[in-house]
Design brief:
Layout (H helix, E strand, L loop, with lengths): L1 E5 L5 E7 L2 H4 L5 H14 L59 H17 L3 E4 L9 H10 L7 E5 L4 H7 L5 E5 L5 H5 L3 E5 H11 L11
Helix pairs in contact: 2-3, 4-5
Length: 218
Amino acid sequence: MKFPVYTITGQETGREVEVPDEVFAIQPHEHVMYLDIKRYLASLHRGTHKTKTRGEVQGSTRKIRPQKHTGQARAGQRTSPIFRGGGRVFGPQPRDYSIKLNKKMQLLARRSALSAQTAQGAIKVVEDFSLEAPKTKEIVKIIDALDASKRFTLIVLPEPDRNIYLSARNLQYVDVLPYYSLNTYIIARPYTLLFTEKAIVKTGEWLLPKKSVSHETA
């Protein structure tokens, strides 16, 4: 399929960039997208939560009162969970939240997310550009000229650009990423995906399914 290329002033250049249908025009696989988004969000959990058990709380191990003839329940050391300041029963412990998902499914999820955004008309291609110095006003002009969403717009570049990143850093509704940092969650979030011309070509090459080679025996 082809996308028209716009200038940073919002005018059509008259050129089109061709990208593979296998990446931008497939039937979205919603369940695989769900699994990959779940994997990404789970990876954000640090899993360092921890409470102390009765064996880890500092305190005397002396039996605090006689076993019998007090009219109260039996009690042992002060670190028992039934006392204030004692250990916690079944409290949270460090754990790994990560979810495994094979690479083919991750790539399929990214292709599905891009195809879904393409079907919704959320992808626009702008000619390659750069800024001489960080200037937030310049990014705002580009967003306005291209009629991009001010709810959330993602600018995808072929490689990191410090000036563009610093220019957009102060805008809450704009994010900037190189194409190889895209994942399903990031692709599915924006209301507008603003690719530069080189970035969308490289994205197509990066996510293009590798064709298996059949080895015929003589």
